[in-house]
Amino acid sequence: VMGGSYGGYITAAALAFYPEAFAAGVDIFGVTNWVRTLESIPPWWGAQRIALYDEMGDPATDAERHRRISPLFHTEGINKPLLVVQGENDPRVLKVESDELAAAVRANGVPVEYVVFPNEGHGFTRRDNRITAQDAYLTFLDKYVRK
């Protein structure tokens, strides 16, 4: 399973909550901790912040639910290889979320590969980084999925 941003969240959640459904996962700057993500949204996001709170719940009142649906708090379920790809300067999904996910899954003895682009944010704009990311995806999937 593979996805970026919300798709990265779905990837990590699928591995955590449905560990036998997929052979491996590629999480590309995905939310892993909804508590932190929603609390870190600045007020100046305005309508986008309100829309996220409407969809996901207000962190002031729904933190328990956010913990329940956050893969970071359920890494014991992740038992398949994981590739995490993250921009160091991501303002939406903070790098610390990917750091913590990679460390927690690795601590369980599961193979984890982690690629960080120091000059990228939420999405990869530099051509060389896009090529490097695509190469990482292919290498990882060849290693863990192709039989």
In short:
With 147 residues, this protein is an alpha/beta fold.
Structural summary, described in words:
By secondary structure, the chain is an alpha/beta fold. It has two domains: 107 residues, Rossmann fold; 31 residues, no CATH class. It is built from six helices and four strands. The protein has a four-stranded parallel beta sheet, with helices on both faces. The longest helix has 18 residues. The radius of gyration is 15 Å and the shape is globular. It starts with a strand and ends with a helix. The mean pLDDT is 96.
Biggest sheet, open or closed, and with what strands and sense? 4 strands, parallel
Total number of beta strands: 4
CATH architecture of the largest domain: 3-Layer(aba) Sandwich
Q: Give the termini distance in whole angstroms.
A: 16 Å
Report the CATH topology name of the largest domain. Rossmann fold
| Secondary structure tally, helices | 6
- What's the CATH C level of the largest domain? Alpha Beta
- How many domain regions? 2
Overall pLDDT:
96
Oligomer: single chain
**CATH level-4 homologous superfamily of the largest domain:** Alpha/Beta hydrolase fold, catalytic domain
Judged by helices, strands and strand pairing, the structural class is alpha/beta
Low-confidence stretches: none
β-strand percent reads 5-15%
The succession of helices and strands, N to C, reads EHEHHHEHEH
Shape summary? globular
